[in-house]
Specification:
The chain is of the alpha+beta class. The protein contains 3 helices and 2 strands. The chain has one domain.
Length: 68
């Protein structure tokens, strides 16, 4: 899910004044030893080139919002 789409869903759930405090990028390369990631890569038949295109696409957001 894209960042803007996620924040729109937070807003649609009744939260306002959404402020992103921090974004942390998790490079795909750091997850390649994870068995679940390996299974997904295998099932989707992703190539090394595919993986390069995905690098830095996983982001964790820290944000504040007010309900109501």
């Amino acid at each position: 899910m894209l960042k803007d789409e996620y924040l729109e869903k937070v807003n649609a759930a009744g939260f306002g004044r959404i402020e992103v405090i921090q974004e942390k990028v998790f490079p795909i390369s750091s997850m390649l030893n994870d068995p679940t990631a390996q299974a997904v890569i295998r099932d989707l038949e992703l190539t090394q080139e595919d993986l390069k295109g995905l690098d830095d696409s996983v982001v964790s957001l820290e944000f504040t919002a007010i309900k109501g």
